[in-house]
Amino acid sequence: MSTLQHTGLRLRVSEKFGGTVQGEGPSTGVPACFIRLALCNLICSPCDTPYTWDTTRFDLRKEAHYENVEELLAWALDQPEDLVVVTGGEPLIQMAGLTELVKGLRAAGRTVEIETNGTIAPSEALVAAGPYFNVSPKLSRFGAAMPETRRLVPDVLRAFVTTGRSRFKFVVSEAAELAEIAALEAAYALTDISVMPEGTDPEVILAGMRTLEGPVRERGYRLGTRLHVLLWGDERGR
Ligand code: SF4
Q1: Which residues bind substrate per the record (predicted)?
Q2: Which atom of ligand 1 is nearest to the CA of 117?
């Protein structure tokens, strides 16, 4: 049952699913349910969830629906998994509804991770609600159609570091990109860095991990993976 008073707030949702595991970042392998919010403020070339935002290729009237915060909260609390991952798209676009959702989840004792591209600063209320932030700044390869100032916002990266609840996660296609990560680490004092290979095919992920293992270890970063891809390929809703 919802622990939240009716707020009247709605969130635009792409999909939600339980009975799975967190596939990326420090909690990889932990049982989890997912709420994927629609809309994004970036236009990354290698985006693997364009159906959440790209109206040139997808009909968002079909791909995304509105749901009251209370309905979403009730759904999440009905899932057996403690960990609730709110992802996107870019969830922080819908800050007010997201904050109320996280408040309700935390009040019920759930662990919450928010996946974000790190370009929108979390509000004080959202930070106070107590989620973890899995921040995934986009490297230059993602930004063919975007200026650097759009994909990297210094004050916002500092704001995430200041929360003390942020972990940083980078998707790379080759080891040469580690130098770019190191420059961001030095500039913004990023901590808890995971590096994972790009790909939506298990063989590509494994090959990428084999290539990255040595260089990532030498930098002192965590070698990440995309566990959901290894298990289920690019199947949606897993
Ligand atoms: S920030 Fe994420 S969801 Fe948004 S376009 Fe880039 S990869 Fe896709």
Answers
A1: 21-23, 36, 87
A2: 1
Residue whose CA is closest, atom 8 of ligand 1? Answer: 47
List, in order, residues 6 or more apart from 190 with CB less than 8 Å away. 157, 161, 168, 184
Question: What is the side-by-side order of every strand in the sheet holding 10-21?
Answer: 65-68, 10-21, 31-37, 83-87, 111-116, 132-135, 166-172, 193-197, 222-223
Q: So what's the pLDDT on residue 5?
A: 62
Phi, psi of 139 (to 5 degrees): -75, 175
Domain-embedded: residue 230: no
Place of tokens 């260089």: 215
**Which H or E run contains 152?**
none
Q: What is the CATH number of the domain that holds 47?
A: 3.20.20.70
- Are 168 and 145 a contacting pair, CB within 8 Å? no
pTM over 0.70? The answer is yes
Tell me whether residue 89 is annotated as binding. yes
Domain hosting residue 114, numbered range: 10-169+180-195
**Total domains in the fold of the chain:** 1
